[in-house]
Structures are given as C-alpha cells and as structure tokens.
Request: fold
Amino acid sequence: MPQYPPPRSGCFLLLVLLQVLSSVRLCEVPGEVVEGPVRALSSRLLGLLGDPAQDPDPSVYLALRLAADHDLSREKQYLGQLQDLFHRRYSQSLQAAGQAHDAPHGHPEKDAAGTEHSTYVSTKVEWPETGRLALYLLGLRATCHPPDHGSQRSLVTWLKFYLEEDWTGSRHHGHPLTSYYQYSLGVLALCVHHKRVREEVIRRLLAAEHHSSFSHAGGRATDTAAVAALAFACLERQRLVGTRLAGELRAATLRIRKRMVEEQDPDGFFGNIYSTPWAMQVFIATNTCREEPAYGQAMTAVLENLEAFTTPATMAQVLPVLYSHSYLDIASMYCQEELDTLKPFSPEPRIEVPGNKTVGLVVECPLPRCPQHQLYSQSVSVPAGASLLDVLRAATELVSHNFTFDTEDTPQGPYLTQVLGLKAQKRSYWQLLAAPSTSLQMGVADYRPDDGETLILRLSEW
Reply:
C-alpha cells in the first residue's frame, strides 16, 4: 500500500481521495468497447421497448438506468408503463394494505417485523410474485425522481409478506414456494431499499447455501447462487445486520465466489452464457474483478459472444456488467447530469434464407432412468433459416416417429421442459449440445443450426 506524507491542505486531501476513488473502479471495460459494441447493444435494447406484445420488464429498466448514457425521455415513458402495470396488478392490494394499516389490529409494518399477516391473505395478487416485485422495487430505487412514497412503502411491505409466504412451502418441500432465486431477489431488493430483514429470513438463505440447495426445481444454480451472494454482500455493506451475522454473510459470499471460480468452464463461462453476467456481478459487488483472472476470462467470453444476447431480457442481464455495475450500485446511484445521448436502434427484420437444410436430432437419457440410452435419432428437414425450436416442431410432424416436446415461457425465451414424455425434474434439465459434446450457449429459439449439423437433447443432472 502506498504511503502518503501528512496532508498539508484541503487540495491535497482531495487529490488523495480522487486517487482512492479511481482505484475502486476495478471492473471497467475498455472505453473503445463501451463506445462500440456495448453502446450498440444499449441502443438495440432501447429500440425494442415499443413492442406492444411484451409487458414492460423491470430488469430492462434497471439495465437502462445502470448504463453510462441514456434516453431519459424513453426511460421515463417505460417507467410509466411499469408503474401502470404494477399499480393495476396491486391496486386492490394497496387499498387493502392501507385499510389494514388504519385498522386497530392490522398493522402491515408490524407484520413485516414478524407478527401474523392474516389481514393480507384474502387480497393476495396472482402467485408467485416475489421475484417480479423485487425487480420492480429495484427499478423504483433506480429512478431519479421516486414515485409516491406511500405506494412504494406499501409495496416494500408486500415484498416482506411474500418472503414469509414464499417460505411456507418449506414445511413440505424444504424450499421456497417459488425458488431460492426469487427469494434471494426479494432479500436483495429490501436491502437496496435499506430495509431491515428478519434474521430468520436471512438464515434461511445461509442454510440453503451451506447445504448446496440452490439448484431446486431445475433452476440454474449459478444464477441463484450469484443473486444470493449479492444479497449477502448488500446486507453486510449496508450494515443491516450485527457483527456476527455479517461475518457469516461474508464467509458465504466468499464460498460462492470460490465455487464459481472452481467451476468455471474452459470457455470462460460460469454455468452458461446467460448465467455468466449474474456471476460477474458478484465480482463487481465485492471489488475482486482485477485480482481474479476468472472475471477477465468471463468478460472476454461474453464480449466475443454478444450476438447471443438477442431478447430484451438477455440484453438486460448482460448490460449492467458491461457498464461495470452490479445491482448493489442501485443503492447509491447518483442521477444528476446524466448523459442524454443514447439513440434507439431498431434492427431490420430477419432476411429469409432460401432453400432447406437437414439437421440431425438425437435424444439421450442416462442410466438408470432410461435402460435405452439413445431414445431418438432422426434427420429433420427444415427451412434454411430455421432455429432449433423450428427443428423440434418439424420433428413432431414426422410420420411414425412420435416425437413430442414441451417448453415453458421464461423472460429469456422458451425453456425446454419435456421431451418424449420425460420431464426435467428437481435436479435435471434438458442439455442442448452440438454433436458430439459442444454445449450450445443459446436457447432453443435463438440457436440456428447449420446444414448437416447434429443436435443432441440430453437429460442431464445439475
């Protein structure tokens, strides 16, 4: 550590402070990259905001707010759409919360501290809501001009209530009703709002980390572990817990970060390309980017594969780290003198490629679940520009081969959940591979195989 002489003036102190502050930004992407492909990605995301078929996404708003430059008018408009959506969704809930607050025996603030919350049960909105509400509250915290404080306070109280309701599933299943991913987002959002969380709520996450329980329900463990680590780091940084618990949180964050490094793929990704930005946020939040080579390898891999981020949701996942930010930065955002220079870019419609291509489709299932390892192998003819999802649909139309599959809609696009009647269960998922063993870094709707390529759907375990 450099040694400085005794300060002699206020200017000297300012100089030292600037030197310290300049050393804090350990994760910055080179300027030419920010001005080139990263800014272009921001412009593309901005150009996708007007799609009337898509509900506004709070994670998209967060990505825009954490960028270096902005289109403040469009951001304000998008925030208005989010507020309309959530206030419409919660209008009855907010009214009930206000009535409960005025009632002699129904104080929502006391409910957040751990008392009974039966006053809310009859007015609960569509379930589950923990993660989505958490992202919306993070978005509200990222605004320069926060909305009505009363409504925001009610939503914070609702999120605390959801964390309690979410956990009731543990009595039968040992995990939240939604997922540890959503549960962690809820704790993180409350922390960013500088709201205290009951110690028991925090310890549930700590216990899950200790017992390696984050991969519940087929969710990506990397994403979940990363969000939990962000919540732990936030609680410690905001000093919302006691000294002993802060030490446990610090140790858990270190363990998660260490596991990420140990499990990093040779191609530089943590889990896959879409979970990698979440993992990178952990290194940013803990100021370990420069000292950890794994972070640099991941950044290189992401920058070399920016074309994989094609949907608003996936763009929103990657943009914060490309601007050297984690969600923890929302708690201390400085909204003055923001650059209002970003212009939207609307991509041209995809050009249809003439002709057809033939793609091999193989389905594999390991022992002991499947006595026959290879369940399906067939060549499928599709249009030249077809995606993997198009290949799967074409396979269902082949006579006498009885191919079936199901997908689940997620913010990142369709997620493959069932093939030939076999469902991905608690610790399994359908892995997408290019033969013989190259993992695809895109989803079924985004990957476009080459003519003659063979694709493998392999039921695998986390």
Observations:
- The CA atoms of residues 393 and 405 lie 8 Å apart.
- The longest strand covers residues 374-383.
- Strands lie at 356-364, 374-383, 405-410, 413-419, 422-423, 428-434, 438-439, 454-461.
